[in-house]
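input
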Amino acid sequence: MSEFSHIDAEGNAVMVDVAAKADTKRTAIAKGRVILNEETFNLLRKQALPKGDALASAKIAGIMGAKETHRLIPLCHPIALSYVDVRFAVNEAELTIEVEGEARCTGKTGVEMEALIAVQVACATIYDMCKAVQKDVIISDVRLVYKEGGKSGIFRAE
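output
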């Protein structure tokens, strides 16, 4: 048997069999940032971008992304999500949008990937909504910041 969970003894990629694992309540939170210039930031805040309300679109896109994670990441299990949310903190001093994605389920495997995909899709949607006025939008610092459930317990990023 391989020491890696997603590689078999012959070196082939495999989906982990989670059938024997107990169902537990699982939560994951990821965060990321979108950095804008002053003009774009002001247009976004006023909901005056050519494509419309960037944050409303990004919220829905992020939720949809989380629900499709198993279709995007080859060895992810389809998960019956009980909750997904995408939240934004607008930071005027830094001209940034802080994006936070949260996913929850009760199941045999975690929802870290769903939270990460929610954030990344929301950030990419903000880029798409802003690109008509700014091509050099920066997406940065996407990472898992909290995870709870399963045998590894609670994780909090420092």
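quick obs: The chain has a mean pLDDT of 94.
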